[in-house]
Specification:
about 170 residues
């Protein structure tokens, strides 16, 4: 049984020598919702970006800064999905889901990897997250409210972002 557990951990653990800027450590309450990890961990990362938990590489805040082609794309993006907040049923919490965006616009996760404009556009409609300036508060709201595969497990997610320091010692 110990060997079986060790084999299971080895399959779930990735070791790399590549440069990393973000590390996600999560409980099965989150990991199971984004399984299998390859390629679904990318979808989790995009869900965190589009919901304002991890900052986008571009700091676009208004539609005025987008091209007319981007605006055509914006019109195709599905509206955020809003469910009653688990802590107060009278408040609806709108969230964006990369999966729904990809399905509606016929994009792949690889397409978004090449150009994340669609995430910036989709994030504009999430005014509830914009009201929360602290990313840790945004993360709490998102963990409490996202709906994925009907999961109701406890959800724990730690996000470690590595600073751009060249020696890699700052986090």
């Amino acid at each position: 049984s110990k060997n079986r557990d060790l084999d299971s951990y080895k399959r779930k653990t990735k070791v790399t020598k590549d440069t990393l800027d973000t590390v996600l450590v999560m409980s099965d309450g989150v990991a199971d919702d984004y399984f299998p990890a390859d390629p679904q961990i990318r979808r989790l990362y995009y869900d965190l970006i589009v919901n304002g938990i991890i900052p986008s590489e571009s700091a676009v805040k208004s539609l005025d800064s987008f091209s007319s082609e981007d605006m055509r794309l914006f019109k195709q993006i599905p509206s955020p999905v809003a469910y009653p907040w688990v802590n107060d049923k009278s408040i609806k919490v709108p969230l964006q889901y990369t999966k729904k965006i990809c399905e509606k616009i016929n994009l792949s996760l690889e397409d978004i990897w090449s150009d994340r404009t669609v995430l910036d556009l989709a994030a504009i409609e999430l005014k509830n997250m914009a009201d929360l300036s602290d990313p840790s508060e945004r993360l709490k709201v998102w963990l409490d409210n996202y709906v994925e595969r009907g999961s109701f497990d406890d959800r724990t997610l730690v996000i470690a972002t590595v600073d751009g320091d060249s020696d890699g010692t700052n986090c």
